[in-house]
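Progress note, project year one: complex with arginine.
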Amino acid sequence: MKKVVLAFSGGHGTKAALHLLRRKYGPNVITYTANLGQKGSTEGLCERAIALGASSAHIADLRERFVEGYIFPALRAGAVCESGYALAHALARPMIVAEMVKIAREEGADLLAHGCAAKSNDQVRFETSAAALAPEMRVLNPLRDANLLHDDEVAAYCQKHDLTARKEDPGRFSITENLYGSSVQWNHAPDSFDEVPDEVFRRTRPIAGAPDAPGELTISFKHGLPCSLDGENLPSLELIHRVSTVAGEHGVGRLVTLEDRLIGIKMVEVYEQPAATILHMARQALERLVLSPDMLQFKSVLSRKFADLTYQGFWFSELREALDAFFLKATEFVTGDVRVRMHKGHARVTGARSRYSLYSQAMAEPTTEGDAFSHSAVRGFMETISQPLRAAPREGWKPREADE
Ligand code: ARG
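Model obtained:
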């Protein structure tokens, strides 16, 4: 008899998936639950899974490894989607799959399963990550096989089979969260002109509720990664938590955007990512101080590629790992302090310093006193830089008024 390991979050989809798998595979369904710092805690989920028929239920606190192994490499790489999405959920998926593969090997299972929604990116990431890590295993999508393609069908299935305690009102929104960010899904697709109501946001205050006095944080980085806040060294998990709390209090980190899903459709997406917003902003300011213009420009192209690969489910790929090696080298000197001010939904960098700074006050000095810049060298520079243009003047470049 085949054995299967199912990713189990305790949501409707995964409950229905568990029930369906039980029917087919009998007592050979093992569940796996990851604690990634989601607020609706993971407590009692193993008992739930067993009660619903799982033969064994695993749970693991992955928070620290999530930060060290996934969030930080993405942060160091400056990996943010074009929309501004900092990939909180795209980063979680490969990690969960990696853990499930380990358990499947320990337990002698050769099937993996998930209860991801039919239009989700997560279903893709699940399959691609599994393909990379365990090509010999097959991935099951029991909801799709049973034709449960919509939320209402899944909810009705759960109800019919008594998988939910009471008749739950799904509300207008469903929220998925982890320690790095939340994602809000509409239970009915909105019009693209509809405004997102304030009440969907849980970890960022509305502007009216944010303090009148601005907040400030000085974030210190070492080799492209944050290590201390206001001079206090902090474990990475604690650091993210604190940045998230302070930024959220000031209403920073909300994002409403149109996303191009991997399955080819546009979706309105709502994210809350206070820590990611601040940390990427600060790191970028520090990079502007210590990196050469060439490096800044080239790196940004690779940052985008890193983000796309992560979004598309290619975390476990040769290219993503090669980019990781590049960013490790490229952030060697990204060490220093950045001051960020937050106020009523906005954040901005108000100062950065580093012992590797390429900024020279003496070079920038606009008055006679202390100016170290070589003005005499500029005349020759002007000659040479404009030489190609002088050599090949084009008639058509004359201003329009001069045309006749
Ligand atoms: N659209 C986002 C992404 O592709 C958020 C996914 C949220 N995950 C979820 N299971 N609701 O990463």
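The first strand starts at residue 4 and ends at 7.
The mean pLDDT is 95.
No further modelling is planned for this target in the current period.
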